[in-house]
Structures are given as structure tokens and as C-alpha cells.
């Protein structure tokens, strides 16, 4: 499975969570995390680079949820430890470091990494690209 498939599932989960649909969001995050973990166990760098962003998004969702009045933050922390263990087992030290608690914090994970840069493009040129596809549809095209 291609790693971007799993990243797309996580992006859909984030959209679902933003609309307060926690059940589909959790299922999408779980599918994305499981697929990325399989790739990391197979020592795929392409899968490993997406693991921190998906793990942090999934943890954010779990910290907002509760079950029978009990917070699910502990489950989110356990999931982060599981992702960290997968990254260590796969030999991805830099990825595993992104899944550790932040400095000066007991249990809060570090911030997710910035989005990956496109290899071969100057940063100033890549920054000029727009990812606001709906906004691009609203713009008038020059005649």
C-alpha cells in the first residue's frame, strides 16, 4: 500500500473530526496508523515520514474524546508509545524522536514535524504554490 493512501486517510479523519464526527474519524485514523506501522516494520522510509503527523493527529482526537465519562487521553499516550516503538524497531531514529514527549513536559508529545519539502525545488519556489484548491476555483482566470 502506498504511504500517501494512509496519509490521505488521516487527512480525511482530520476533516471528519473537525465536523464533530468522532467515530468515523477514529476509524480513519486507526486505519492510517495501522497501515503506516506495517510500512515502518518493513523499514519503509516513505511510510515512516508520515508516521509522526498521523500519530499526533490521532492523539489530538483521542484527548478530546471520553468513554463513560473517562478521558481517552491515556489511550492516546499509549498509542504514541506504540508508534514510537514501531519507529525504533524500524530503525528510524529521527522519526522516533518526533514521537517522544517534548522537553520540559511529562507526557505531552512534541509538535508534529513541518510538511516535507519537495526535493529539487527551492523553498521560496515551493512556498509560492497554493494548496487552497477550492480558493483557486473561486479565482477568476485571466482572459
Describe this protein's structure.
- With 143 residues, the chain is mostly helical.
- Helix content is 61%, strand content 3%.
- It contains eight helices and two strands.
- It has helices spanning 3-18, 22-41, 45-48, 51-64, 73-90, 93-97, 123-126, 133-138; strands spanning 66-67, 70-71.
- A two-stranded antiparallel ribbon has the order 1-2.
- Helix 1 packs antiparallel against helix 2 (22-41) and helix 1 packs parallel to helix 4.
- The longest helix has 20 residues, at 22-41.
- The chain starts with a helix and ends in a 5-residue tail after the last helix.
- Mean pLDDT is 79; it is low at 103-107.
In a nutshell, what does this entry contain?
This protein has about 140 residues and is mostly helical.
Distance between the termini: 43 Å
The gyration radius over C-alpha positions equals 17 Å
Fraction of residues in helix: 55-70%
Number of strands: 2
Along the chain, the helix and strand elements come as HHHHEEHHHH
Oligomer: single chain
Mean pLDDT over the residues:
79
What's the number of helices? 8
Q: Report the sheet with the most strands, covering strand number, pairing sense and barrel closure.
A: 2 strands, antiparallel
Strand content: under 5%
Shape: globular
| SS-derived structural category | mainly alpha
> Low-confidence spans: pLDDT under 50, at least 5 residues?
103-107
Strand order across the biggest sheet? 1-2
Outline the fold blueprint:
Elements: H1 3-18, H2 22-41, H3 45-48, H4 51-64, E1 66-67, E2 70-71, H5 73-90, H6 93-97, H7 123-126, H8 133-138
Antiparallel strand pairs: 1-2
Helix pairs in contact: 1-2, 1-4, 2-4, 2-5, 4-5
Amino acid at each position: 500500500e502506498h504511504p500517501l493512501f494512509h496519509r490521505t486517510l488521516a487527512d480525511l479523519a482530520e476533516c471528519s473530526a473537525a465536523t464533530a464526527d468522532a467515530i468515523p474519524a477514529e476509524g480513519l485514523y486507526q486505519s492510517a496508523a495501522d497501515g503506516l506501522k506495517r510500512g515502518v516494520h518493513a523499514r519503509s522510509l516513505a511510510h515512516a515520514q508520515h508516521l509522526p503527523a498521523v500519530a499526533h493527529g490521532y492523539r489530538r482526537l483521542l484527548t478530546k474524546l471520553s468513554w463513560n465519562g473517562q478521558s481517552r487521553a491515556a489511550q492516546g499516550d499509549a498509542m504514541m508509545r506504540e508508534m514510537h516503538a514501531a519507529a525504533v524497531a524500524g530503525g528510524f531514529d529521527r522519526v522516533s524522536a518526533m514521537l517522544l514527549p517534548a522537553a520540559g513536559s511529562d507526557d505531552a508529545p512534541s509538535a508534529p514535524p513541518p510538511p516535507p519539502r519537495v526535493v529539487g525545488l527551492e523553498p521560496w519556489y515551493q512556498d509560492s504554490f497554493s494548496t487552497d484548491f477550492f480558493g483557486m476555483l473561486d479565482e477568476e482566470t485571466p482572459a
